[in-house]
Amino acid sequence: MKPFFSIIVPCCDVEPYVRECLGSVLDQPFKALECLVVVETSNDATEAVVREIAAKDGRVKVYTQPRSGSPAAPRNTALDHAEGEYVVFLDGDDVIAEGSLQRLHDMISARPGADLYPCALVVCDASLRPLPVQAPTPDVYPQNSPVELLGTEATILLGKGRNMANPMAQMTVCRRGFLEERNLRFVPGLRSEDAEFSPRALYCARRVVPLHLPFYMYRTQRQGSIMTGGSRCSLIGDWVKILNSLMAFHVAASKDKDFDGRVASAWSRHWLNIVFYSWFFPEQIRKMPKDVRRATLSALFADGGGAFRALRKCAPLQKRVAGLWVEMFVRFPPLRPFIDLFFRLYFKLADRRSRRAESKGET
């Protein structure tokens, strides 16, 4: 029988957690699933633990491959082998809540065939104790959002917030046929791979049904995780790749005669903010070596700056002006001290506007 869910679990150096992770799947009362575990070369006994579990439960399928540095490549491998109707992404050091697969099944069956079913997650500490500061749960979509949206509508809705989120892939149940039809895959090697994948998937979706179900237990504060390792320089290099990919996606999408300009506005506000805060926020400037800052920022303009300018033209006035200063930083090196001064003022004004908005919200 074809499984309803394909649970995709990338694993690398998660021996202390993977038994609990897979147990949270296999012990669910809902049984119509397959669990595709892709183990990358590990320095501990992760693979041995996974194979021990697989020997006892035929729903677990094990694949191995070289270490890549992110969940992207193993997720792609699992997608190539998946057979379920819907895909759930689960990292090897996290768990899914007890009984949640049955609830997901029932909610999806009530509105079947959507491409994406965004959910919520519970942020936990390293011992899987929910963190009260995140109460009640991180949910990308407002509780009063429409029960069903087009992908473009969902993109615009998220863009109305102070920051348009790039949801973690683990927060969204995906129809596998949709991923195959649109050839949606992750970029291997990126540690912030969801930031590149999620906007593309959301825009391409025909039907998006927010479920608001906090089924995913996300473990933070774990030493040795991918996101806590690596240098600041390598992380900023990831953002260059992510932004270049997304800006190229915007250029291609905007050529469609039915392209909605409000989507470009939502993208531009969020993606330009990433540029401003990653390369021009005063604290970032202090921490980043000058040569790295200049080289990585210049890499955003590897195409001559055409994709960046196309994005900047869609932004609100203040971000268009700030984006122009970014381009001048790359093109006119003698102006760089003055451009950094401009952004110090820019962030002070942005902070003042933010505090004013919060104050109005409280009254």
Describe the structure.
This protein is α/β, with parallel strands linked by helices. Helices cover 49% and strands 12% of the residues. The strands form 2 sheets. The protein has a 6-stranded mixed sheet, with helices on both faces.
Question: Could you give the topology of this structure?
Answer:
Blueprint: E1 5-11, H1 15-26, E2 33-40, H2 46-56, E3 60-65, H3 72-81, E4 86-89, E5 95-96, H4 100-110, E6 116-118, E7 120-124, H5 151-159, E8 172-175, H6 176-181, H7 193-204, E9 214-219, H8 232-253, H9 261-279, H10 282-287, H11 290-299, H12 306-312, H13 317-331, H14 336-362
Parallel strand pairs: 1-2, 1-4, 2-3, 7-9
Antiparallel strand pairs: 4-8, 5-9, 6-8
Helix pairs in contact: 1-2, 5-7, 5-9, 7-8, 8-9, 8-11, 8-12, 9-13, 13-14
Q: Which descriptors would you attach to this protein?
A:
six-stranded mixed sheet, Spore Coat Polysaccharide Biosynthesis Protein SpsA, Chain A, 363 residues, alpha/beta, 49% helix, three-stranded mixed sheet, 14 helices, 2 domains, 12% strand, single chain
Q: How much of the sequence is in beta strands?
A: 5-15%
**What Rg do the Cα atoms give?**
21 Å
- Number of helical regions: 14
Q: Supply the CATH class of the largest domain.
A: Alpha Beta
Q: What proportion of the residues is helical, as a percent range?
A: 40-55%
Can I get a quick summary?
The chain has 363 residues and is of the alpha/beta class. The protein has 14 helices and nine strands. The protein starts with a strand and ends with a helix.
